[in-house]
Amino acid sequence: MKTIIKKINNIQSDRDIIEEAGKILKKGGLVAFPTETVYGLGADALNEQAAEKIYAAKGRPSDNPLIVHIAGMEDLPRIAEIIPEEAKIVAEKFWPGPLTMIFDKTGIVPYETTGGLNTVAVRMPSSDIARELIRAGGGFIAAPSANTSGRPSPTMAQHVEEDLNGKIDMILDGGTVEIGVESTILDMTVTPPMLLRPGAVTKEMLEELIGPIAVDAASISADSSKPPKAPGMKYRHYAPKADLSIVEGPVELVIEAINGMAAERIAQGYKVGIIGTEESRDRYRQGIVKSIGTREDEATIASHLYAILREFDHEEVDYIYSESFARGGIGNAIMNRLLKAAGHHVINI
Questions:
Q1: Helices then strands (H, E): number in the chain?
Q2: Which of 17, 45, 65, 217 is most buried when burial is the number of CB atoms within 10 A of its CB?
Q3: Whole-angstrom Cα distance, residue 104 to residue 194?
């Protein structure tokens, strides 16, 4: 299969590209496209064969649910059996945006899309390109991240091309995404609602709006053996090719420990990568040091995380040592992704 790659800058002037991509989706094909979080790999969510193509292209386990993307609130009742009042309040505030909610599904949503579950994950992205594509493609687009399963998620079209060129029909190149980590996932089928995956819409933001939010243990600890109710819960995700370790403790001791471990690995003949910040990058004495952003603005850390993991892949490092980051706010999302990328390998200092 030859993958068509089209740059898209303006919804109006590039309308023909959107329409072309929409036709591919309606015919059961696969189109990768930018959202505000990461690039998604889209297929017609109501076409079970199209959904199966996503799993095949990504090498994704078939019990890992897909998120259904919609472009308007009026489409939600077609795929969600019950829409609680709390969900309407949350949607009013955070849709369109980086938030996914889980509902009991209606009969038109195939089990191939939901990973065999009776629930469906739904999101309305804020990206204009994404919403226009959803409309052009029929209104219901299933879209996990557009990468090989388990690899760091794509934040630019080049990442998609690296993983999926020749496996999908089209890539829409809309440049680098804004947020850089996947959407928050909130389960609205339980009381109180449960946070299944942290993201840019934080637990604190949600609680301010609708009161107490439970947190699924799998979002902060090693994966359980339970069937995943949402993407990214059960399997190792976001992983670089190198052995990644997170070093946790007081910053001064973390820097000292990473310097020592890096020196030891380099002496053994290995290539070492170090993930630091703008505040610490100059204090690492050897290895390939990359700043992930600044602790004064954790959004910069989130936006650079996946790109840096992929850069280390290109540089063929054997070991990566990363500083840890504060929990709370978007820090929860950063640490959730880092822990899964590292297989929960944490070195406590």
A1: 11, 16
A2: 45
A3: 14
Grade residue 238 by pLDDT with cuts at 50, 70 and 90: confident
**287, 334 in Cβ contact below 8 A?**
no
Joined together, the tokens standing for residue 307 give 């790109």
Coil/strand/helix, residue 255: helix
Determine contact, residues 105/119, Cβ cutoff 8 Å: yes
Count, residues in the chain: 349
Please say whether the beta carbons of 109 and 68 come within 8 A: yes
* SS3 assignment, position 295: coil
Mean pLDDT of 76-101: 98
Distance in angstroms (rounded) separating the CA atoms of residues 183 and 317: 29
DSSP H helices, 188-343, are: 203-210, 251-267, 298-314, 331-341
**Alpha carbon distance 99, 198 (integer Å):** 9
> Which residues, other chains included, contact 315 with Cβ-Cβ below 8 Å and sequence gap of 6+?
271, 273, 288
Pairwise CA distance, residues 169 & 338, whole Å: 31
227 has a pLDDT exceeding 60: no
